[in-house]
Amino acid sequence: MKTLLELITIEMEEAFLKAGYSKELAKVTLSNRPDLCEYQCNGALAGAKTYKKAPFMIAEDVAAHLKESVYFESVDVVKPGFINLKLSPDKAAAYLNEMAGEEKLGVEEAKEPKTIIIDYGGPNVAKPLHVGHLRSAIIGESVKRIARYKGNRVIGDIHLGDWGYQMGLIITELQKRQPDLPYFDEAYEGEYPEEAPFTIGELEEIYPTASAYAKENEEYREKALHATYLLQNGYRGYRAIWNHIMNVSVADLKKNYEKLNVEFDLWKGEADAQKYIPDMVQMLKDRGFARYDAGALVVDVQEETDNKEVPPCMILKSDGAALYDTTDLATLVEREEDYRPDEVIYVVDKRQEMHFTQVFRCAKKTGIVRPETELKFLGFGTMNGKDGKPFKTREGGVMRLENLIREINEEMYKKIMDNRTVEEGEAERTAQTVGLAAIKYGDLSNQASKDYIFDVDRFTSFEGNTGPYILYTIVRIKSILNKYQESGGSLEGLQIRPAENEYEKALMLRVLKFNDVFETVCEEAAPHKICAYLYEAANEFNKFYHETKILSEEDEEKKAGYIALLLLTRRVLETCIDLLGFEAPERM
Ligand code: ARG
Q: pLDDT, tens digit, for every residue of 315-329?
């Protein structure tokens, strides 16, 4: 179904044509003075020059042809030549009823669905998840859901960091601690043990110890680098250790992402790109893209129009080891082969922007991707503490994701118990649901590229622009609907009626904008615009609720009309939070 903005634009185009002007001028937008009108058209101003006429006169001519339109309650021409439009209450109600009959609430699916790969999450195996990975997971998950809602074929890939130096470090440290393990015996030809020689807890301790030690011990570092090289080049014993590390870490990661309501279609990683590297390197050499620079193999990606230096893409280090650029390029080779994506979106810390500029340029110039493949970098800002510095624990260490989640959930639990609407056991589950909303909404309500302050008190508040406030509003609607049913009302076949008061009208206007808002959100991959919409919708609902007798309304038809509006409002709100990646409890 067409969005209301589209329908009104069609009306406007006809009016421009009938008045003798070009329909190109008939652009309608949401009003920026919602107190005066809901929609507006500024085309008369733009047409003044062409038609050598005062904009006000053009606007008057056009408005004359809009007077009979069934869409508008009023059409006002305002100096110097704006056309202000107020939607007719009948049309609004009719549109909402039509929306209610649509599975996707009036959003039209893409006519030519795209294949889109979203590269997000990006945790590094064997290192604990920290809050830096939180943003990628939260934003990526939402962007994935949005693109999917539009009807695209969307594939979420976690792209594990599982092929770098950290693996060499773990291998080296393990050898230092348990030199007798068969993995380190070059002569060993038997099967390696199935059981890993470490637990996840040990693994998480091994990495930081090794990393710190390598910084002060040259010999140890060299060993770790060489172990990385051997691993990448297929040394059997190290590959077996790598498998253990993967099994232990991935099981742990899955648990953590599940708690975040983040779900990947692919659990691929840098290591999966390895098998594409030799051919890719050969191609880069054969076709003259690559050159040697101080022993390293590089591809130049500087362009004439650059006003700053863009260093070459690093393909192989002088010792032959693959690098971050290499695995990202080879992953594109793999993705091209497996999926031929129309678009690849990387949701990564914006400090990595240069890396992606290099990789994208190199992939385009060397034909690793087709010229029409869109490579997009969705860089996000830093999550800071209240002191404005990157979020840390109280002791000043890197905050682990699980601890952050625990802290929020505890805070939520206290608040929910204070409310006394749910039993202890349920309160715990509810605290998790609401806690997740607090974290995700707190993050997503900011434009992704901006830094933001993670403020536990603010994010867990039931008031203001927060996740809990949105959920509270949904719970309130659910509770009214339940009471309506308990007193014998049926939720089937109800019709929304034309608004009777300004609060009802405001709510209706907000709800019917859902598909228009969604289009923008989808085009711009901008979850924060869903949050802004949700917040306004929740506010409008709550005003309506406070100003209107709903359940105690005596006119049954009127009451049923309200209930129909509530049903649709709930669906829209629940769809929005689902797009953000969280859900609402029954009570809170
Ligand atoms: N593992 C990387 C990190 O922690 C993020 C990976 C992002 N994705 C990619 N294709 N490079 O910084």
A: 999 888 889 999 999
